[in-house]
Amino acid sequence: MKPSVAAMYPLRWAHWWLAAGGALMAFVVVLSLMPAPPRMGGSDKLAHLSAYASMALWFAGIYRSSRYAAILLGLLLFGVAIEVLQGLGGSRQPEFADVAANLAGIVLGLALGRLGLGGWCVRVERILLPGVRDGG
């Protein structure tokens, strides 16, 4: 199902922004499903938080704040699906704490969007394409 154009900011390069977001998500899938490197102490929860905050902020640059709940739900389900796949793969263990760190990252990314970083793609396009006003 294609999202409503009204839900997105008017972006000239909308397809490219969305494709890059998809590539970011694919990168997270690959890193999440490949065999885990040996731990050198510490926790991987900061990596989970950072990755999901980055994805949430990425999509907050493309979609208006009215879509933040959908972004939250979509990324949360994405993270849960990865944890399920990790459990099926055998080389990694699914962890509830990973889902919690993912959720914290999503909330952080969307909070940054609410605090003024939302729609950042529009500002980037205005810098790179001065004088172009519409998203067409």
Structural class: mainly alpha
SS strand fraction:
under 5%
The largest sheet, given as strand count, sense and whether it forms a barrel, is: none
| Span of the ends, CA to CA | 21 Å
| Strand segment count | 0
What is the C-alpha radius of gyration, as a whole number of Å? 16 Å
Q: What would you say this structure looks like, in words?
A:
The chain has 136 residues and is an all-alpha fold. It has helices at 14-33, 45-62, 68-89, 96-117, 120-128. It is elongated and about 55 Å long.
Reconstruct the topology from this structure.
Elements: H1 14-33, H2 45-62, H3 68-89, H4 96-117, H5 120-128
Task: Provide a short characterization of the protein structure.
Helices cover 67% and strands 0% of the residues.
What are the key terms here?
136 residues, mainly alpha, 5 helices, 67% helix
